[in-house]
Every structure is written in structure tokens, then in C-alpha cells.
């Protein structure tokens, strides 16, 4: 049986998955994987172009497929914001790692994600950020092993506290 040696970061676009993921990977000596980059490599297109050319449903299919094929250990995995829509993919990731939900308020999200940014679904007018936020919130909460309030800038102290919370969780749940 495989161990849950990965840390899987979930949350809305702009919540800090990539920023925190890279820093946490460096701190823990783990590999960093951005699943949006894997999707782009799989499709040979940027995420925004996939959405624009093929649509939201297609992006979700590709994302689920890429996540289901992901078989890594000792990695920090930053998922796309919509990964949580695939129950099978999230179950697969949860079997391989600890799911960490980077929670941010809607106000923080609105400040961080600008309309001009290429943010996949979050950029489409038919998917306004407040609607996506409230639609996804219970999905993130349902799969999270650890929830981290990520409304503030990432400092060395906050990173150290998060690292300690992860270690405590792993120690007390006997998943390693």
C-alpha cells in the first residue's frame, strides 16, 4: 500500500496554491507539481485557451484525466481551482496525500484575481467569482484534511506554523 506522502493544495484561483506550494516544497525538500502546467502540457495549450476553444466541460474532463493519471510520492501538488469538481480525481489525490484547503475570503479573492488575468473559469462572464466561490466552498471543505486561512501575505512565520500543523496532522493520523 502506498503512503500518503504528498501534500495536495486545493482552493480558489488566487488563494496562493502555487506561491505557498513552491515555498513549502523548498522547506520540506519535496518536489513541486502545478497541475495546471500538467494540463497545459497534455493539451499543448494554455488553460485559458483550452477554456476559450473547447469550453469548461472539456477542461474539467482533461483536468480529471490528468489528475487521475498522477502517480507521485513526496510532492507538493497545487491543483487547479476546479479540480474539486471531480470526485474521483479528488479521491485519487486524497489517497496519495494530505489535502490542504487554502481558504480565503471572497473579498480577498476579489482583490487578488483581476479581470485581466488568465484564470480559466474565473475569467468567464457566465462564471462570476462570487458564484464560483460559493459553489466550490462546500466542495473544498468536504475534502480538506487541513484548512488554512490564507487571507494574509505568506511570511516565514506563517509558513513555519503551517509546516508544524502538517507535521502534527501526519503524526496524529498515522498516515506516513
Automatic annotation (TrEMBL):
Signal found in the keyword field: no
Cofactor: Mg(2+)
Record text on cofactor binding: Binds 1 Mg(2+) ion per subunit.
Binding site for ATP: 14-19, 119
InterPro entries linked to this entry: P-loop_NTPase, Shikimate/glucono_kinase, Shikimate_kinase/TSH1
Amino-acid positions noted as binding substrate in the UniProt annotation, renumbered to this chain: 36, 60, 81, 136
Entry keywords, A to Z: Amino-acid biosynthesis, Aromatic amino acid biosynthesis, ATP-binding, Cytoplasm, Kinase, Magnesium, Metal-binding, Nucleotide-binding, Transferase
This protein's GO CC annotations: cytosol
Family of the protein in this entry: Belongs to the shikimate kinase family.
Protein name: Shikimate kinase
Organism of provenance: Arenicella xantha
Amino acid at each position: 500500500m502506498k503512503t500518503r506522502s504528498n501534500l495536495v493544495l486545493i482552493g480558489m484561483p488566487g488563494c496562493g496554491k502555487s506561491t505557498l506550494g513552491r515555498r513549502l516544497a523548498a522547506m520540506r525538500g519535496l518536489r513541486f507539481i502545478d497541475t495546471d502546467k500538467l494540463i497545459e502540457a497534455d493539451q499543448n495549450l494554455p488553460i485559458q485557451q483550452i477554456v476559450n476553444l473547447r469550453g469548461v466541460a472539456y477542461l474539467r474532463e482533461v483536468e480529471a484525466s490528468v489528475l487521475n493519471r498522477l502517480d507521485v510520492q513526496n510532492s507538493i501538488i497545487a491543483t487547479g481551482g476546479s479540480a474539486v469538481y471531480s470526485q474521483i480525481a479528488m479521491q485519487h489525490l486524497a489517497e496519495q496525500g494530505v489535502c490542504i484547503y487554502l481558504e480565503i475570503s471572497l473579498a480577498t479573492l476579489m482583490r487578488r484575481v483581476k479581470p485581466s488575468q488568465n484564470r480559466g473559469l474565473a475569467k468567464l462572464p457566465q462564471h462570476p467569482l462570487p458564484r464560483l466561490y460559493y459553489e466550490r466552498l462546500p466542495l473544498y471543505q468536504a475534502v480538506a484534511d487541513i484548512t488554512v486561512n490564507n487571507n494574509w501575505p505568506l511570511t516565514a512565520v506563517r509558513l513555519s506554523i503551517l509546516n508544524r500543523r502538517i507535521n502534527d496532522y501526519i503524526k496524529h493520523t498515522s498516515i506516513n
